[in-house]
Write a structure and sequence with these properties.
With about 240 residues, this protein is of the alpha+beta class. It is built from nine helices and four strands. It has two domains: about 100 residues, no CATH class; about 70 residues. A four-stranded antiparallel β-sheet has the order 1-2-4-3. The longest helix has about 40 residues.
Length: about 240
């Protein structure tokens, strides 16, 4: 339903601005005169049919705040009816429709209506479950297809070469460096330092060829297992 005249809530009740109603009815009489005359002519009761509100909005011309009137729906419907023109008839029909809509909204549901709502909820729930099941089926089909495609990829029959102790040490040092944020060079220094204090093997005192690393020296001296144990203990700490 299209809103012809704004209906607001005033003190928990639906209300219509008398000024807005006056404008909609296109009455040529000055608003203050029109509302005062209507209140007197039709015996509208304050705080029952209408409430007087003060409008404190600043006026361009200045002056005291003006009186605004909040009409009940019944009073607004009566003032629209007595206007005696097409706009008044239209406003009255609009207010009647609004009252009917309010009554329907506040009307308690019958057992049949409650049952119908329950049925509608079950139907909607079933629709959603069906949609979810369809999505699950689609995902399962895609997964099965991906597994089949994966199985169809040719693979090598040769066994994967296991990492040497040397490679395992380097992997552990790299892992420790990333986890702690310590540069690898410092981690290696710690490994060789622990090797000296735990096993009394001083790698750095050994002679090293130009092309060799200290790890090459340790491998040549046969202490790779000790280095692996030290690197492992650092990771496990």
């Amino acid at each position: 339903m299209k809103e012809l005249i704004r209906i607001t809530e005033q003190d928990g009740k639906q209300a219509v601005s008398a000024r807005e109603l006056h404008a909609f009815l296109e009455n040529k009489t000055r608003f203050n005169d029109w509302i005062s005359r209507r209140i007197e002519e039709y015996g509208l009761a304050e705080n029952q049919d209408y409430e007087v509100l003060l409008n404190f909005e600043k006026k361009p011309s200045g002056g005291r705040p003006s009186n605004e009137y909040a009409l009940s729906i019944s009073a607004a419907k009566e003032l629209a009816m007595v206007e005696g023109n097409a706009k008044g008839k239209l406003a009255r029909q609009y207010f009647i429709a609004c009252e009917q809509k309010l009554k329907e909204a506040s009307k308690p549901l019958s057992q049949i209506e409650i049952l119908q709502q329950s049925v509608n909820m079950l139907v909607e729930q079933e629709r959603r479950v069906t949609a979810i099941e369809a999505k699950v089926d689609t995902i399962a089909e895609r997964q099965e297809k991906a597994e089949q495609e994966l199985k169809s990829i040719p693979v090598s029959a040769n066994p994967v070469k296991e990492l040497s102790v040397r490679d395992n040490i380097r992997m552990l040092v790299n892992k420790y460096s990333k986890a702690t944020g310590i540069m690898q060079q410092f981690v290696w220094d710690k490994v060789y330092s622990d090797l000296y204090y735990r096993y009394h093997i001083d790698i750095k005192s050994s002679s090293k060829k130009v092309s060799e690393s200290w790890l090459d020296v340790a491998e040549r001296r046969g202490c790779m297992q000790e280095l692996y144990d030290i690197a492992s203990s650092m990771i496990n700490q």
